[in-house]
Design goal:
By secondary structure, the chain is an alpha+beta fold. It has one domain: Alpha-Beta Plaits. It is 35% helix and 24% strand. The chain is built from three helices and four strands. A four-stranded antiparallel sheet has the order 2-3-1-4, covered by helices on one side. A hairpin with a 4-residue loop joins strand 2 and strand 3. The longest helix is centred in the N-terminal third of the chain and has 13 residues. The protein is globular and about 60 Å long.
Length: 94
């Protein structure tokens, strides 16, 4: 029983304590046709940890929900870059 308790505690303590779902808005100024958002969305949802990706052609932006314990903003921008659409983070006013 003590071994089981020790293994369980080690497993819990090894997990990231501060991971949290995050949302980021990416600017995608080079999207220039109606098919571009489909390509961008496919690239984003392939990134491990992404829970949602909503791409707005009119605004040239993507709203991405992700688990920051599994991926990063840098991985998201790299995914759009690799798909042919460089992106940057839209800063929210504080």
């Amino acid at each position: 029983m003590n071994k089981l308790l020790a293994v369980t505690l080690c497993t819990l303590l090894a997990a990231p304590a501060w991971s949290a779902p995050r949302i980021v808005t990416l600017s995608l100024p080079t999207m220039d046709c109606a098919v571009c958002p489909i390509t961008v969305k496919k690239a984003l949802v392939k990134v491990d940890g992404v829970s949602r990706a909503e791409v707005n052609f009119d605004k040239r932006q993507a709203l991405v929900g992700f688990d920051d314990a599994k991926t990063s903003v840098q991985a998201l921008t790299r995914a759009t870059q690799d798909a042919g659409y460089p992106s940057t983070v839209v800063e929210r006013p504080t």
